[in-house]
Amino acid sequence: MKLQKVFTSLRESSEKLAQLSPGQKNKALAAVKESIRARTASIIAANDHDVMRAKDKGMKESLVDRLRLDETRMEGILSGIDEIIAQTDPVGQVVSGWTNENGLVIKQVRVPIGVAAIIYESRPNVTVDAFAIAYKSGNAILLRGSSTALETNMEIVSAIKAGLRSVADCGAGVPGAVELASSGKHEEVDEILNARGYIDVALPRGGADLIKMVVEKASVPVIETGSGICHLFVDESADLDRAAIIAENAKLQRPGVCNAIEVLLVHNAIAEKFLPKLSDKFAGRAQFRCDERAFPIMQKAASAKNAKKVVAAGEKDFDTEFLDNILAIKVVNSVEEAVAHINAHNTKHSESILTADIKNAAYFKTNVDAACVYVNASTRFTDGQVFGYGAELGISTQKLHVRGPMGLAALTTTKYIIEGEGQIR
User: Fold this and answer.
1) CB of 179 closer than 8 Å to CB of 143
2) What is the Cα–Cα distance from 210 to 216, expressed in whole angstroms?
3) What are the residues facing 415 on neighbouring strands?
4) How many Å apart are CA 355 and CA 205, to the nearest integer?
5) Cα dihedral: 370, 204, 209, 310 (round 10)
6) What pLDDT was estimated at residue 1?
7) Of the N and C termini of the chain, which has fewer Cβ atoms inside 10 Å?
8) Which residues of the chain are under the pLDDT cut of 50?
9) Nearest Cα to 206, choosing from 397, 424, 3?
């Protein structure tokens, strides 16, 4: 295997890392933060090269935005490290414990998973977030970003390793606990996904194609994150002015992220009133792909300038993560129809209802199958930092082990510690 030395180093480093105290890990993370801060200018310069190449290759602006780093975003990355440092170390936590009738003391304790691999697309902040979460939770990590962010990721990982080396002598830094797979070749991904005995868990973070590829090819365990076909349902009792504001935020604040909505569902009873408000609020900043009932209303509401941005929805438009200024719109007759549509077309990520009806809110919360279900709020809040994790590995849309934004505990498993006084069975 071409990555054999890397795998072996990560395994050995994970064993060293598992022995560190919370204080030692926090000291190492603080050193990494200062190392990244010291190299901010060179990281941004490398990122400028990646952004320029991405634009030259025709990457759409919403995805370029995910790739771009600046001083403000770098400060956000550094503050994320501080938040992780401030969190309680999950390793060693007793999940449950009891004493059997025969006197055996049984405890279920959190322990690191071991070696994680994250395969992700062009979001260089993930490089720092994933490392910091892995290190604090006692895991070594293999980072495999996309070629579009290669220069940025190489500079960031270099800064991380420099920070770890600076505290290695005092036992806090384990530089081998983080590696970057940087060849850019697809064979590299295949090797990672089949490194049984070396990689304990793989995490895909990106679009539907990437996630599907990882799930289908991996022979190592996978925590499946989801692409974001997220819905916003405007119920008949919703405050329509507030609904327009929430829809604008959920779609347009950052259209290239996984917690932005791709589909708007509107109750038939208020469609004639709400959709023109939506059209005015968006003011030509998005294309609307409308079903047969929404189309004539939106077409009538659009100004002559924006008329071309109202089109009939195609067959795949309610099953597409656009990651762009595009919104599919469907009119439904009830909360039951809205929920049925969501469960048939979503990716189990984030779904929201805007309503003043307590019963409809309760029905939505109970019956929608998703990691995060909102009532009267934008889906844009599905984020590890917003949830108080400081950073996240991604949004898990599976139902095993973890679901939703993944923080420190997501990279831990448990083992049972049983203590006795000579008992036999």
Assistant:
1) yes
2) 10
3) 109
4) 32
5) 50
6) 57
7) C
8) none
9) 397
